[in-house]
C-alpha cells in the first residue's frame, strides 16, 4: 500500500500520480499523423488507491504530412508495445515491425502533461507529442516532431526545465544506443541541437532514459550499460565542465532491489512536489509494471504496489 510511504510523502496529499498507457492494440493506418488513444490512470499518493481512469482519444497532429499513410501489409504486422525499449541493450538488432509505444510522460510548466509516443514502421519512425489537461483528460493539441538525424531516430524521453526549455533524449536506432541529448521546439515540431544549452555528450555504448526535473532544477534520469547495472544520473545545467563548457552527466547512485542489481532499466521516473523519487519498473520481467520508491542516497528501490501503466508523472500545480 502507498500508505506505507515515508513521512514526508504524507505532506503531499495535494499531489496525484498520473500514469498513462496505450488504450488500443491496433495501429491506425494514419498513425504517423495522429497520437494513439490513451488511458490516464490517477492514483492517490497517500492512500494508494486509484482515484480515476480517463480515456483520452487520439488527435491529429497540427503539422501533418500526407505521404506517410501506412499500407495494409505494414498494419497486418502491427502491435502495441507497452514495454518500450528499456529492456534493449547494446548489440540487439533493431525491430522493424509496426508498433506503437509511449516513451515519455512529461510535466510542462503550464500544468499540462506531454505524452510522447512513437510509432515504429518499416519505412521509418515517427514521434508525436500530445498536450493533455490532467484534470479533464482533454487533448489540447498534438505535434509531430521532425528534424532528427536519421529516419530511424526516436524521442525516448523529454523533460521541461523551469525556464521552459524542452530537452529530450534521441535514439538513432529505434530506442537503442547511441543516444544524444537534444532540444525540442514543440511549437515548430522540430528537434534541434540546442547549442545554447551546451548539453553534455553521452557515451555511445550506454542507454539513457527517464529524464525528470527535480525541485532544485536539476535533471535526473537513468543509464544502463552492457554490464547491466542501472544507475541514477543527474544533469545540472549550471554545473559546467571547465574545458568544454558543457553541462556534465554525473552518477548519483546504482539502483538495487533487495540488495541486488537491477537486470532491467527503469521504465519511468517521477519526482513528487516534496522531492520523493518514484520509479516504474518490472525488475523480474514478469510482464507486470510496479511502482517503487527510490532512496537517492542508498540506491535501494522499495516496492509500493502494482501499477500497470507505461509511464508516470506528477503534474505541476
UniProtKB/TrEMBL annotation:
SUPFAM superfamilies for the chain: YVTN repeat-like/Quinoprotein amine dehydrogenase (SSF50969)
Xref: InterPro entries: Quino_amine_DH_bsu (IPR011044)
Protein name stated in the entry: Phytase-like domain-containing protein
Native species: Dulcicalothrix desertica PCC 7102
